[in-house]
Amino acid sequence: MEIIQGTCHSAFPVDEPSRVGEARRHVAALCRDLGFDEVLAGQAAIVVNELGNNLCKHAQRGQLWIASRSGDVPELEILSVDEGPGIGDLPLAMRDGYSTGGTPGTGLGAVQRLATDFDIHSEPGKGTVVLARFRPASTASETRAFRVSVLALPAPGESVCGDAWALALDGQRASLLVADGLGHGVHAAEASQAAVDVFVKQPFAELQTQLEDAHAALRSTRGAAVTCVQLDTEASALLAAGAGNVAIRLVSGVYNRSILVQNGTVGVQMRHVQPTRMDWPEHAMVVCHSDGLQSRWPPEAVTALLGRDPGLAVAVLVRDYGRGRDDVTVLIVRRAD
Fold this sequence. Notes:
With 337 residues, the chain is an alpha+beta fold. Helices cover 27% and strands 32% of the residues. The chain is built from 7 helices and 18 strands. The longest helix is centred in the N-terminal third of the chain and has 21 residues, at 38-58. The relative contact order is 0.13.
């Protein structure tokens, strides 16, 4: 069984070249912490530089969202996100030598070659999302039954995220938790992390037990909205339960459903837990998010991305439907290809 505990992305609004330098220095520090060799760290530096410069020259309200995850397979993730003007001809833009800004035109092609994982999505008039991940070649990822991506950002002006998340993978089963501590800042983070600490001890325990144990553990905190979901690919089903406003959505383009959880606050006031069981169609993605994302986002926002890296979908949702004044966490799980 593999357990992944949440990390938070750092946001770098790119409105001038100096911000690209800040992001590059941040990436260099993360690479040192992850133990990347000089070659891989250098590749990551080139990519953040290329993506940042593209945002400076071509984008509107462009940002770099950067996170690292340690463990058996250390990983660095860089997301480049903007709100326009988009790329009309992606295959052409990916060719070396293509440029609209008077540069050599090696940017996106170089990013694709250097990154371990790469994906891109662009809509003219709406903007572009570019995803690049880096992992050491000596730590190739094991084949998983799930594709997972998470984006977590703190509220503006805060240094820590009041949300927390965790994920457990065990063959054809997955279990996840997303917690949103009341308010913002350090005390909210303490509450949400307390829920994660309970979850990682027994991630596949009955949902009622998980939430009741979390309720007891969070009584010494300000409390949190908490949602737990268990997925089973063989049964094509999911179980979900929670208290508060951490939302769950199923999106497949045909079968789009929201799963209701009870009102309440874990650690403060919570009624009897009643898990909900729902079919999980073959091509559906499961989206779990805190209330930093608007609740009424349309499923059409991500249906075009169902077969793509889920990192694109989390970035599109936060870019287009994030409230912009709260911590936000979006976790997406789908079956592996």
